[in-house]
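Re: the 112-residue chain
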Amino acid sequence: LANDPVLLRRLAKVGYDYYRVSLGLLRSMPNDRIRVVRYDELVANPKRTVQQLYSWLDVPITPAFDKRLDDALAAQRGYESQHDYSLEGFGLSRDEVYEELKDVFEHFDFSR
């Protein structure tokens, strides 16, 4: 994959299109119909994030689901991916990504 710059370019375009379409859908929906979960929130406290989503959806969390959630979180503790992804590894630069997705960066107040 890393040896095929044409394929990497195509994958980057798919990624850019995904974010643009998603942002368009987000902007077209009423705020009470969609909830965005930021990755940093999910990573910081996954259980609280799930609880907040279920509450927002007005879906009760059963004791069985709560236990499965605890078990899944316990299994994930200490996990470290063996992969090291970088923009450069995909033939991209920070400037390019920012320019392609400037609207997304601005909408979510992401730092450049």
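DSSP finds six helices and no strands in the chain.
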